[in-house]
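Researcher: I'd like a structural prediction for the single chain below. Treat it as a standalone chain; there are no partners to consider.
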Amino acid sequence: MKSRFILMSLAAAAMTMVSCVKDNIDNPVVSEVTLNAVTESGQTKTALTGFADVVWSAGDQIAVYTGTAFKDFTLASGEGTASASFSGTLAAGETAVAAVYPAAAKGADMGTVKYPAEYAYSEMGVNAPMVAEVAEGVLEFKHVGGVVKFDVGNIPPAAAGFVFTANSKITGDFEVTSGAVATSGTTAESVKISFTAGSIKSATFMVPLPTGTYNGFSVKFVDASGAEIEGSAKVKNDYSFTITRAKLLAFPAFVNKYTHFLTLSVRAFRAFSIRVDPE
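Model: Treating it as a single chain, here is the predicted structure.
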């Protein structure tokens, strides 16, 4: 098997990490599984609460790969904290060998992740795709791409979306190679952060991006119909920047209405782990 995620068999570990429900002569045995989420640094992933703090959020799901299929596991406890547990079920003979976060980021094929073309705005930030390989019974998640961050003020009242466009591939399925995904091609693609018109006057928009060097980009606001808000667009076709795995590339706040960019700075994400513990 190609080493897209580096998969390791958990056949032995699975015997200690699952508890089986009563056998049914007419149905396959199903195992109730709990995965406990912790981090090496005491911080956990998902949404960014400030610039660096990260916590688990209500409704978080991970897609656990069993070797043949993905099974979704849902946050069971730990909302808003630095530790959490996920629950799900595995059929007889299935073991957890890898995982993707969020669950919706699992690609069409094993070894791929999906970057959506639209996100719902949240003050908590954005959930960038991560994958986990198994090592000594631990699912240790790592970012496969980076994030670009825009602080924006004076948002037009009619705006219902913030649109970032790059001159290369930034949406759809990407193959994970050496723990990362990369942009490619020269066809422009866009990502939209959606919100209710008039609901926010200023905001921080975070856009997950595959790694690589980007030659040119643009941003704009659109109304509920998708039409561009006049005067809100900024096109930087002569501007290049590089996205690195597990890094956040921050544009300082927009000034002079929403169109002026200053210098860039970089900040690292914190990695986290999901431990597979016996019940």
